[in-house]
Amino acid sequence: MSIELPKVIETYFSADKKGNAQAISECFTEDATVIDEGNTYTGRDAIRQWMANASTKYTYTVEPFSMTEEDGRIVITSHLVGNFPGSPVDLRYFFVLSGDKVAELEIVP
C-alpha cells in the first residue's frame, strides 16, 4: 500500500486481499456495524458472513490510495477492480475506530 494506514485498517485491507473473512471479522468490535450496498451487518458473525459471501460471489482487488478524516471518521478511498457489475470503481470506506478495533464501517461509491 502506498499510504500509511492505521494498523487495524491495514489489517482489514490485508485480510480482504486474501479473502479471509474470519480475519476481517476479527478487526471489528463484537457489536460493530458494517453498511455496504444499502445493507447493514451488525456483530462479528454477520460481518464474517457478509465478507464470506462477497468473496465467493466476486473476484476483485482493492487498492487504498487516499486517507482523510471527516466528522470523526477515517475515510479511505480505494480503487476496486474485479468481475462485479460497474468495475472498476473507486469506493470510500468510512471507518470509526474504538481502541484498536473497528466499531463502524460504511462503504459508499
From TrEMBL:
Organism classification: Bacteria, Pseudomonadati, Pseudomonadota, Alphaproteobacteria, Hyphomicrobiales
Q: Which organism is it from?
A: Martelella endophytica
Which SUPFAM superfamilies does the record match to this protein? NTF2-like
Name the record gives this protein: Polyketide cyclase
Q: Which domain of life is it from?
A: Bacteria
The residues covered by the SnoaL-like domain are: 10-97
